[in-house]
Amino acid sequence: MDIATIIGILVAFGLVVSAIGGGISSFIDPPSMLIVIGGTVGVLLVGYPLKTALSVIGIVMKTFLYKVDSGSEVIAKLVELAQTVRKDGILALEGEVGNIDNKFMAKGLQMAIDGQEPSVIEDILYKEMDKVAERHALGADMFTSLGTYAPSMGMIGTLVGLVLMLQNMSDPSSIGPSMSIALLTTFYGALMANILFLPMSGKLKNRSKQEMLVHEIILVGVQSLVIGENPRIMEQKLLGYLPPKERKSSFD
Predict the structure, then answer these.
(1) How high is the pLDDT of residue 191?
(2) Is the separation of the CB atoms in 186 and 44 below 8 Å?
(3) With DSSP H G I counted as helix, E B as strand and the rest as coil, what are the percentages for the chain, rounded to 5?
(4) pTM for the whole structure
(5) What are φ and ψ of residue 48, in 5° steps?
(6) What's the CA gap between 215 and 129, in Å, rounded?
(7) Domain locations in the chain as residue ranges
(8) pLDDT in tens, 42-76
(9) How many angstroms separate the Cα of 26 from the Cα of each of 23, 30, 39, 168?
(10) In this model, does residue 152 exceed pLDDT 90?
(11) Per-residue pLDDT averaged across 184-204, rounded?
């Protein structure tokens, strides 16, 4: 579970609610919510195919629950496998594949065990990385779009509220509800875009970069296993992908 995402949302909403104070009920307006939330969902369905739009629920869950493997942990595992290969040969990894949770690594190892050439492994795994990156980009783009749609629907709600207010200036009792729609729709749209949608888009983009880095480490590591490279040499090669603070040798 991504604690940072949960804490960030709670802190942001908490500060807004604290600033509002005891007048929170004045900021709850069903017509305004209907315009912004309903309108944003509707526009999303216009912009994306139904199946893709519905996948946003799963993407939200991944934002909170999905964990990217640590680069240092992946390198340590690959070095361990390299030591096994150096001692007992590549076929000794057959018993290890079923115990590896990372599907990308398991796929690469299986190809290595099957005797595929490093160039073939590279071609297949790079193609898979491209497809994964495309899926990640689509999810991030959807949230960027939602971050654009929500404030726009808020502005539409503001115009609706202003028109209603101007049409009923002779009736003082109608001015309050109309002004409420005018102001709260903009508030809801800005709140949804800047606390939820746009930060989630940024989180998904950063997470995708982290996962692509881990996948590249795995790809290079599997190629090293195939050619029987010295575990120390392989480790030094792979540690180059990490920032200096995260580099830790298994041989120290």
Answers:
(1) 93
(2) no
(3) 85, 0, 15
(4) 0.83
(5) -135, 155
(6) 7
(7) 3-68+138-197
(8) 999 999 999 888 888 888 887 777 777 888 999 99
(9) 6, 11, 22, 21
(10) yes
(11) 92
The number of residues making up the chain comes to 252
State the residue for tokens 């940024």.
202
DSSP 8-state assignment for residue 194: I
Mean pLDDT calculated for residue range 79-96: 87
Q: Which helix (H) or strand (E) holds 148?
A: helix 118-167
HSE, side-chain direction, 13 A CA sphere, residue 95: 5
The pair of structure tokens assigned to 228 is 């029987």
Structural contact between residues 221 and 93, judged by C-beta atoms closer than 8 angstroms: no
Grade residue 107 by pLDDT with cuts at 50, 70 and 90. Answer: very high
